[in-house]
Amino acid sequence: MRSPDPTSEQAIAEARLRSITHPGTGERTPNLPPTFQAFRAAVAAQAPTRTGVRVLIAIGVLAAAVAAFTFWRSAPAPAPLPPPPAATTPRPTASVTIHVTGKVRTPGVYRLPTGSRVTDALTAAGGLRRGTDPSPLNLARRLIDGEQIAVGTPEAAAALASDPTASIVDLNTATPIQLEQLPGVGEVLASRIAEFRDTHGGFTSIDQLKEVTGIGPRKYEELRDRVRV
Question: By the 8 A CB rule, do 87 and 106 touch?
Fold first, then answer.
């Protein structure tokens, strides 16, 4: 029996390998199944060329760049924190300090809100004692810081008689609250006097009070001895 030639078998094997890896050379393996041949042909037909691979890579890179840019644009930007509210120091309530003496239930020094009236001072002092006449007082007058309210005492009347200028008000320097101390002058009339003074550059004579709206001849007679310029 003749032994197989190793050289012939190697040549056949190489021919079969070339037919599989390099189709179209004219060599064909006799025992290659037809289905495998069709599969090989389909793969060879659909395999992308080198230029096509480059195009696909470029498209992929562009798509990745667009996706990254879109994600960056859609990311919420951090909003700046609002500045902390400025610390505010609470303003103390404006007040006046007055001294109530005389025929009241609880004489003493009291602190009342600015704009309080004489009647508020008497209420803070517990009210008038029984039988005390409040008519000498202007209960509607606004309080002035540091003033003393004497109720029904001879000492207060004597002090006023010995210093009559203590009740005289300077028309050019008095505040509206001080003007309200004048007899028959309330908040509205005091504001008119102050407004007349500001618009006319001050009072040059007491007679100019007649030009203030609300001051007639009778009111002027009550005021002329209580004011000065």
Answer: no
**pTM for this structure?**
0.38
Given the structure tokens 């793969």, which residue do they identify?
43
User: 174 and 197 in contact (C-beta within 8 Å)?
Assistant: no
Tokens of 208: 């100019």
What are the CA-CA distances from residue 177 to residues 88, 145, 173, 188 (Å)? Answer: 30, 10, 11, 11
Residues in the chain: 229
Neighbours of 104 (CB within 10 A): 22
Reported as a pLDDT band with limits 50, 70 and 90, residue 98 is: very high
Distance CA(102)–CA(138), nearest Å, equals 16
Q: How many C-alpha atoms does 190 have within 13 Å on its Cβ side?
A: 20
